[in-house]
Amino acid sequence: MNRVFYPVVKSLFIAALALSSVVHATDAVPAAKADPVKGESIYTNGDATRNIPACVACHGAAGNSAIATNPKLAGQHEAYLYKQLMNFKGPDRNNAIMTTIAKALTDDEMKNIAAYLDAQVAKPGAAKNKDTVEAGKKIYRGGIAEKNVPACASCHGPNGAGIPAQFARLGGQHQEYTLAQLTSFRAGTRKNSVQMTTIAKRLSDDEMQAVSDYIAGLK
Length: 219
Fold this sequence. Notes:
The protein has helices at 2-27, 36-45, 56-59, 78-89, 96-104, 107-118, 133-142, 153-156, 175-187, 194-200, 205-216. It is globular, with a radius of gyration of 24 Å. The protein is an all-alpha fold. It starts with a helix and ends with a helix. 54% of the residues lie in helices and 0% in strands.
């Protein structure tokens, strides 16, 4: 009996080792690198076969939106853009248009679009209200100590360039869009940043307006 048992055990052990090697070899295969060329294609043309509209229609050529309510995406950090598209698929960032589009995109397509937009050059914006620029500057650069509002620059950088994979690029963004997002964070309709929700709840309408306008002029 032992003569039969031990060869069987040995065979099973060898098979297990072989399977383990296959599994670990598969795990070791690096993820495919994002392809900005493919990203540009879907950004510019969409995919009519899957009812995915071209991103360019709302966000402009090379991500430079000319529509104040739609964000400029050119030069936005790749990891941040990918995260936002992922968030649109879930409950934390619900938007009738973007949620539908994001759900239709594959993971690779989201990464490719993000890589394409990251490589684009953002066109500058400008502050519009000279009466509030100084107030906006103080909030952005120094925060509001009495309200425990930190300086926006501490996370988004002195010129609004942000920090890749952590904090969004803000410089030159449309005033209207930035204001809308701050309002959404405060209202709890945008829920994908605990930090921004906390900060927005401490800002008044006028303070939001002033800092949004100042951000638009950052270069």
